[in-house]
Every structure is written in structure tokens, then in C-alpha cells.
Amino acid sequence: MKDFLIIGGGVIGMMTAWQLADAGHEVNLVEQGTCSGEASWAGGGIVSPLYPWRYPTPISQLASWSEGRYAELTAHLAEETGIDPEFRRKGLIYLDVEDEIRAVEWARHVDKPLSRIDSYAVYAREPWLVAGIEGGLWMPTLGSLRNPRLGRALRAKLEALPNVALHEHCRVERLVVNRGHANGVDTTAGRFTAGSVILCGGAWTSQLLDPLGISLPIRPVKGQMMIFKTPTVSGSRQWLERVVLRDGRYLIPRSDGRVLVGSTLEEAGFDKTPTWKARNSLYASAISILPALAECEIEHHWSGLRPGAPEGLPFIGEFPGVADLFVNAGHYRNGLVLAPAATRLLVDELLGRTPIIDPTPFRPTVRLVSSETQVVTG
Asked: CATH homologous superfamily for 3-44+149-218+310-376?
């Protein structure tokens, strides 16, 4: 029997496994598809909430802790695995921010560099943006990375650890709870047991809990994105060098010249089918920010499912009433942003360490739908 069993092989699940293994524990990780194949792959890779001043304070605390660690984390993964997540810290330009005063006040309060820049300063940074921009907000410390590469690097790191076992294409059929304690799962590959069970199932987390009669308010929120292939303009200069955000849509540059545009917010259940309506909307948003993209090939259009939770606050910690059953899910649009801090916070609880921040706002509060179905015996 392993010390810990993790359900879900996204960035949250893999970072949790890495930290527990580094602490000397034996870990099984079970993933219904391939590791980092869902929301962790489908997102844009911005290492900050899009409009951080609009989130509750606990989100800002997690985000601040995480942002300061991505440079070292990605460099470590690149050196050990040979897979570079391509972390870039080139800043973010905000355009047409309605609550600009609130944003600046938030930045001053949390000691975050965010300043108003004029039209000249905008075009000095990004000369190919649409004409007529009168100015914007500038956050120089924002970073981004290529999240598919981060996922591959984390997977390679775990594969190299002797005390971690990865089980991909392994679907969980039910959680096993005996006498009020979770101690394993039944899967399509058989039963796995452990001292503690950790749910990192993203948008699917609530489905895992339903057979126990536990209702956790996490729902799938569909998001569609596209990527354009652009040419190099002159030397190493690309058409876009920095993240640009306008009217809730963003452009994210990659080091090879590609530009991502995202993303939609759709209540469509577990349907991940890309649609022409979203494609047209994303295209319009992209060229309204960077008109030259109209000349470029759309290389790929895809969708993913975010794990939506009330106020965007993830659930992190042990479930009340079911000992040894833990959760780290519901990060909504900020799974990648919060991952280093969210996983560290849970691992601190699992190992009895002093938490990095107050864990109280993230503790899971659940509603038992039926007390008769709360316990599944082995």
C-alpha cells in the first residue's frame, strides 16, 4: 500500500506527487487519460489571474506565492528533464480597463508594479497593435509559459522518481471508504490502496464524489482558444512580444512567433466540441488587438474544461466527515497560476507542516445528499 494516492494527473496532481515524493513518500497517481491532457494542456499559460484585483484576497495570496517560484521551477525542470517550459517574463499590457482606479489601488496595496502608460509607451512596446490606442495599464512582472511543455516536463520528472507510479488511461470507478476513512479507489485497472486519497480531478472532481453522497460545487466551464502562426518580422523580433489583454480576451506570444488568442466562457457541461461561433468570435477579438493576424494561418482551434467553483476559490484540504480524503480542485481559470502555492498548501497539511498562508478560506465545505450513500465499503 502506498502512502498517498492521487486522482488526477494535471499540473495540480503532478506537482503534489513531486512534493510528496521529495519528502520521501510512496505515491500512486491515477489519471483517466494522459497526464496534463485536459485543462492543464488547454489553457494559455499566463502566470497571473487576468484581472487579479477582481478576485478575493486569498486568491491574490496564492497567486503571489506562486508567481515568485515559476522561474526557478521551470529552470529546474528544463535542466533535469531536457524539456523547457519556456517561461518568459515580459509583462502584460491591459487595454480598456473599466475599473482602472480599483486596479491601481489594488496594486499599491499588494506592492505590485502596475502603472498607467500613454499611447506612445504602448506602441513602443508593441508597435503592431491596432491603431488608435490611447494608453493602458502596464504590469512588467507578468510571466507566461508553454503549459503543454510544462505538463510534459512534470510527467518526465515523475517518471524518473522511483517512489512515484503513474497509471494513465485508468478510470476511477469509485472511491473506497471504510469506517469513515478513505483508503483507496477501484479503477478499470483494479484496486489501489493508500493511507490517504487526494482528489485533483479538476472539472470531474464532483463526479468522483457523487457516489459518496457528497455534493461539491465544482462544475465544468468550457473555454475555447486558437493559435496563429506568424512570421518573424526582423531579426528575433516577433509581431507580438508581450501578453495583451482587452475586453476579457488576451493574446499570448510564444518564443517561436506563434500567438494564442483566448478564451471563451461557456456553460456547456462536459461538451468539449470546438464551435464555429467561438472560432469567429476569437478571430474577431484577435484582429481587433493585432490586425496583422488576419494575414496568418490559424494553426489550431481547441477547447478545454475549467473546474469552476464559487468566487473562483479552490477547495484545498481534508473533507469533513471522511478522514484521509483530501481535495485540491476548483481553481477555475487559475489552475496553472495557483499550482505551486495550492499544492504546497495541501502538502503542508498532509505532512503536518506550518502552512504558507492561512488555509481556512479554502477548506472544503460539503453537503451530504444522502447519509445512506456516504460510505462505500471494500
From this structure: FAD/NAD(P)-binding domain (3.50.50.60)
